[in-house]
Structures
1.
Amino acid sequence: MDAKIITIGDEILIGQIIDTNSAWIAARLNDAGVHVTGCATVGDEPQAIAAAVEEALANANVVITTGGLGPTKDDRTKQVLAAMFGCGMVEDAATHARNERMLAARGIAYNELNRAQAMIPECCEPLPNPHGTAPGMWFERGGKVLVALPGVPFEMKYLLDEEVVPRLRNHFSISEITHKTMTTFGIAESMLAETIAAWETALPSYLHLAYLPGPSGIRLRLSTYGEVGTGAQEEVGRQFAKLEKIIPDYVVGYDGETVSSAVAKMLTARGQTLAVAESCTGGALSARFTALSGASEYFLGGVVAYDNAVKTHVLGVDSATIEQHGAVSREVAEQMAAGVLRLTGSDYAISTTGIAGPAGGTPEKPVGTVWIAVAHNDGVHSRLLTLGKLRDQNIERASAAAANLSRLILIGHPDTPMRVGTL
Amino acid sequence: MDAKIITIGDEILIGQIIDTNSAWIAARLNDAGVHVTGCATVGDEPQAIAAAVEEALANANVVITTGGLGPTKDDRTKQVLAAMFGCGMVEDAATHARNERMLAARGIAYNELNRAQAMIPECCEPLPNPHGTAPGMWFERGGKVLVALPGVPFEMKYLLDEEVVPRLRNHFSISEITHKTMTTFGIAESMLAETIAAWETALPSYLHLAYLPGPSGIRLRLSTYGEVGTGAQEEVGRQFAKLEKIIPDYVVGYDGETVSSAVAKMLTARGQTLAVAESCTGGALSARFTALSGASEYFLGGVVAYDNAVKTHVLGVDSATIEQHGAVSREVAEQMAAGVLRLTGSDYAISTTGIAGPAGGTPEKPVGTVWIAVAHNDGVHSRLLTLGKLRDQNIERASAAAANLSRLILIGHPDTPMRVGTL
């Protein structure tokens, strides 16, 4: 069964908002066995919305739209859909009552704009939204389904999981899609492709391999589509097991595992703890760990030692070392890691110090020069990274590499080469 | 002049990657006066790529594609385009030489996969890519332009800015588009709409207003399209100046200004400094400040005090206070802020402590309960936030609200009400 996703909003076409909804919806539909064949974005123009919806309905069984259901004048999706499906607007009593209650609970006046949120096309079935004032709307025509969802991500997510996917399962008989994805970190794409070429060539023809390079490593996805027999999932597992033997230290995990979640799992399982001392990553490395629920099981905290005085006063880095080697040096990275290990009493401590850019580079230490270190009770390991010119990318890559160094130490291979970047 | 953007890759249709390229390209094209009328995403299937490109070329003057130019077998965009434009593949000597040099400099072997990156359709003009092995490709047909760019964001960005936009300016005569966007923070969308209704109704008809709600506040955009006379830009400025008088404390700034960049500007201008003590935001608040270049001008650093022992030992929070009021309390938030102010000697210090979820809630302090505080030499201010159930959203909103509290103090209005969320 095929689906198309349409995102509605001028804000996307002028690039003020990144569309994260489509990826999330696509992932959930794929999990449910629905094959997403395309996504499209259109502006708030009624004609553009109508044309995109008609085109999508002509080419897919299910169309999901997000956006354009807000209380303000620029949101016109539901009027367009009422016209397309040939019905008028009515006030939905349940939505009206729910919205009045919800706003009262939050101390917000129930004004005309809020009240208009309860007006919906008569020919749709409203999907109750407990997190916002715009209900989802389920339309059917000629065996096909169109669902309009609000654009606010957590409202959309709730409605998709609780209302849309269960209804789609009832409405269609859904065929099988299997995806499994391996996360690798520390090997260049061309090197990886060469290293695994023989394995790739020997894959059964019904297994489809894709490379997904990204800032947090290259992921390898094996997929099957349609009816390929009951053994497909087991075969995917067997193939990945073979691949693990070819590139053992580069395999981080499966299906969304990241370097930081892999480290989190190992530390939690061992009952050990982690602390972080960050200079150039400025909080981003800690945030990677604390973004995952359960972080308090192993993550004690850390110090963002942006200013040199914080490095010396809080972490105990020797100011003579900074004077002699510079704040961006192996010596300072190692003292930062050892310092936060001492300060927090953690079992492992990760540090970063570097020049994220765009300013601050010198001929000897250009922008992108980063030292990372990991200290533990038996010693300290450090690496020099030579990254690029872009600040956000340098912060992201340095964070991922620093977390990966702790992963390599945890798996007992602290000296495995690590390449960070996309080449 | 109209443009369409096409993103190519199965990884997007199964939701494994969020397409950030389209928003970035759309923003740059809009700045250049090119009106983006739609975006589409297709998989790596040759037929789907060809159909999407043909459809886009039929409806727009310019089509930009990203993705599908990698060295691996699943990337087939350039073969599809060669077939569509009716030419064969040739090795581009300049790309070949550049890639060989680039890989040698990074110590990567130049293998067959890398060499294949220099093969390009004979009918395109290659756009040299100094950051990766896939060149951009510029095609022309019937006065229209198609540009194929690699999907790796920083390679794509470089090529768009350095090659594509300058060439488009030469190739087309580009009409005027004006956008200006005000960032607001701390007011609910329905309340905002009601408060500014009279101002909105009185806008000149050629000014188009849009509400852009997001986790970091609601932005208001005024746009003009086409030829509207030379005074349009001034009128946009005048209208926003009027609006500032209606909602003064909620206006953060313009055109991408965020709460943290506004705080950064004020502190830098005053020569004052900031430090941060984070519990539930776990580094995300620091990362917001350090993501901006120039952070070292005012940002000293901070402590991620995830574990209570870090709160007491490093920040000097009284353990009896934690015992009596709990780690998530006004008292602990205020002591954390005061503690990091003392520790770093900063002029201002922000703190957060809360229950991000999904676990850790109690009937008295459910998930989403967060205390934030800001300390400075003249005292400390704190607020209770009542957020939602979602961990990532709670971290994001608590970080934005905490930064906004420091903004309100910096503008001298520490007691202005603040609502965080989308209702």
2.
Amino acid sequence: MEQNLVIGVDIGGQTAKCGVVDARGTVICQTVIRSDQHEAAEPFIAELAVALKRIVKEAGVEGRIRGIGVGAPNANYYTGDIENAVNLSWGRSGTIHFASLLKDAMDGIPVTLTNDANAAAMGEMTYGAARGMKNFIMITLGTGVGSGIVINGEVVYGHDGFAGELGHTTIVRHNGRLCNCGKTGCLETYCSAIGVARTAREWLDMSDTPSVLRSLENITSKDVYEAAKEGDELARKVFDFTGTLLGEAFADFIQFSAPEAIVLFGGLARSKEFLTEPIERAMNANVLPLWRGKVKLVYSSLKESDAAILGASALAW
Amino acid sequence: MEQNLVIGVDIGGQTAKCGVVDARGTVICQTVIRSDQHEAAEPFIAELAVALKRIVKEAGVEGRIRGIGVGAPNANYYTGDIENAVNLSWGRSGTIHFASLLKDAMDGIPVTLTNDANAAAMGEMTYGAARGMKNFIMITLGTGVGSGIVINGEVVYGHDGFAGELGHTTIVRHNGRLCNCGKTGCLETYCSAIGVARTAREWLDMSDTPSVLRSLENITSKDVYEAAKEGDELARKVFDFTGTLLGEAFADFIQFSAPEAIVLFGGLARSKEFLTEPIERAMNANVLPLWRGKVKLVYSSLKESDAAILGASALAW
């Protein structure tokens, strides 16, 4: 009998990555389309359906697609809708019945939708570092800080479908940085790629510590990482600070759901050589004794180029 | 056919409250025994079994007990053990196989064990203010701050059975109060009955604001409540401060599991006339816009004298 397959679609502000995936987590055919060329959702969905049918045909697997999983910002798992997604040119205002529209355009193949961090958690559980785990917290360290929480083997969606916004927990209670969400002191204003670059720039302005970063025009988190690798003191302290805040936040997350592990993914997680030690130190200093030294800190084991597609596809099984 | 019944046992440091409960949440027969008279667990469990058999006989319901639910400190739902319970004279060191020992002493009636706050959450869901809710967070405001988290209709136990220690999340990050757990700045050092009394005493020492509390030798949270009712400014500010910290903490809990409601129970929750406004204000100021004004704050609807027994009994269904 021929193996069942699924499709994973990861929708970001500029592009949508699409792939056909088998049960072992191999992306057997993939493509990327632009996601920022439309003001309305319907023409984008029509274009997406054309692209998906094309890769299914190219791979010669017509009739074997069991479902489509979609990771997208502001996606509601319960309703299949995308709601007020400010980062999507066609999703800014109101509610788009994305799952239902795509299902129709794909001749009835079932479509499941969730946000990117929840999709990443599904991906790690199905094919990656969290295989076999029933309780873990996925933290994505990208331009923002996202999260997907798994309890008893299931992603937590909560009462309304939007659970797991751990990037917006308050890590600096007074005089914290202003976040895009309108609040201040959110974890993601400090511990995202953007937050790391901002910390470096602030510290360079506030001190005269010598640093290779002083010669750069626009500092990115990658620059800070490169500088830290070269032994730059200030850059290393930026990572120490970032890791400490992450560890403090993780301690409270552990006290909530007692996970087996915290799983890290995303561009900033590549700096693990500078993040692991401060994270573990702060995490263990801020949890109850019963969890001290017991909760694992692990990094995604998925191939980075495939991870987004794999995460979305895992929803479809 | 005769109705099935369960037994609820709530074990505290001084007493164990026991009752026979029907499916509608009526305590049809109850008793209280001392829990602080033994250094070893076995003789306490033997005494408890005698007391339980006596109330079953008094109620004339022999043979109709379907299960026994026990709420106790440091109780592990997965294993049925009580582990290192410093507040129990017979539970201080090591592991007591409580569920299995009590089951044997009760001629094989199944015994389920969890901590008191999880039991309270089960009680609210089965008979109380959270009936019909599938996602809520129970916060018990007593001498400490406990919590029971319900997601998809089930209490969250986590990887090891100890999830839901929200009283030990850090609410004051720097120079916070020392907690019994060894950490500093834990929510329960500020927002428990003991924390409220401590805030009042600190503020009286640090200022010369006039207050009826100045005439008292040992201030309790009840004194602060009585003073607030009389219009005492300082006492009202203590509740405003306490409620604000609770609301800030609840905002982060909401961002974790997106509950339908936060349910409050315990001695301090009786001060709701002074707590509700600051809690709701701080909670709504610190959540993402999508939850603003949407998550309910509700108070336990169980009769206080029955609540502990009902909570424990709810485990047994």
